Amino acid sequence: MTRVSSIAAVLGVALCASPALAQGPPPLQPVTMKQLKPDVWAGIGGSGGNSTIAIGKTGVIVVDAKQTEAGAKDLLAEIAKITPKPVTTVFLTHSDGDHVNGLVAYPANVKVIAHMNNKKEQEAAIAAGGRGAPPPDRLPSQVVMKNKETMTIDGVKLELYHWAPAHTSGDLIVYLPAQKVAATGDIIVTNRADDNPNLHIDKNGSAEGWITNVKGIVGLNADVYVPGHGDLQMKADIQRRLTAVTARRAKIATMVKAGKSLEEIKAALPDAPAPGARAAAPPAGAAPGGRGPAPGFVDVAYAELTRKS
User: Fold this and answer.
1) Could you tell me the strand order of the sheet in which 60-63 lies?
2) What is the radius of gyration, based on Cα positions, of the chain?
3) Chain centroid offset of residue 19 CA
4) How far is it, in rounded angstroms, from Cα 180 to Cα 223?
5) Contacts of 230 (CB under 8 A, 6+ apart)
6) Per-residue pLDDT tens for 271-295?
7) Given the DSSP bridges, would you call strands 142-144 and 87-91 parallel, antiparallel or unpaired?
8) Which residues of the chain are under the pLDDT cut of 50?
9) Closest to 205 measured CA to CA, from 238, 256, 170, 241
10) Which helix (DSSP H) or strand (DSSP E) does residue 241 occupy?
């Protein structure tokens, strides 16, 4: 009986341990490098959001730094296969950790450039503490304060745009006019339905601002767009999303004018499933940690429209 009890105890420990093992960090997915122009690449996927890489005369410019130290090291290793030049500058399209927190793997003296509201959001996250806070020693060292700023870094001409809050209050579009490449950050993502952009209401994201920004993005003389997540986009792809979101917001406005409640509008205009989503998958707007659905596009648009009325 003692031997049987011992076996049962061992099995019990193994069964109890297996869920913990299953909940460990997922294996790192390698980044996929795609050459866009002779001196411009996109680092698609891997850890966190996409990255854009521009090779200058003596150094390398990276847009968005990946989510983790391991993921950033993977990207940096891929860059090293392309050029021996060091990474000297990182632009951040917004403050989400999956675009920012990989900065821990970059050189300590790297210049980090972001919109001023991005820096404020990172400082707020650090003050709040907790898991996912950005690295405090890699805060932006230069901030963008205008709707449009131009600069040349190491021979690379850049145009930086922030027309309004959209995904967050600190969004920044990074455009390379000579190469006709634009990095949109999470204003554009391909893992959601066309008419359901990802808006962070807790970071003052805006449905109206999203439309304003995407009109500006479509207006750029770009051949290819690097979205925050998903595969490369063409102008027609961006225009399709703009048309879909504009139409959905117009429907919400009509229902608000008719006196419909938020619940009635959500029931009439539910979020479409993400492309390729399976029935068993969690809703596109599900919040992490099982806290229920995060505020979605209808929530944000409704709040804006009712505040103005």
Assistant:
1) 32-37, 40-44, 51-55, 60-63, 87-91, 111-115, 142-144
2) 22
3) 30
4) 5
5) 50, 189, 190, 191
6) 988 887 654 444 445 454 444 467 8
7) unpaired
8) 1-24, 279-284, 286, 288-292, 309
9) 170
10) helix 235-257
User: Percentage helix, strand, coil, to 5, in the chain?
Assistant: 40, 20, 40
CA distances to 32, 215, 267, 270, 299 from 276, rounded to whole Å, are 20, 27, 22, 17, 24
Complete domains list, the chain, with CATH: 22-308 (3.60.15.10)
Residue whose pair of structure tokens reads 């420990």 in the numeric block? 13
Asked whether the beta carbons of 252 and 302 are under 8 A apart, the reply is yes
| Dist CA 247 CA 262 (whole Å) | 18
CA dihedral 100, 102, 103, 108 (to 10 degrees): 170
Structure token pair of residue 43 = 């680092």
The rounded distance, in Å, linking the Cα atoms of 163 and 26 is 37
CA distances (Å), 225 to each of 72, 75, 79, 98, 252, in order? 21, 19, 20, 19, 29
**Tell me, what amino acid is at 307?**
R
Residue 185, classed as helix, strand or coil, is: strand
**Residues 50-105: tens digit of each pLDDT:** 999 999 999 999 999 999 999 999 999 999 999 999 999 999 999 999 999 999 99
Give the DSSP letter of residue 286. Answer: B
CA 28 – CA 71 distance, rounded (Å)? 7
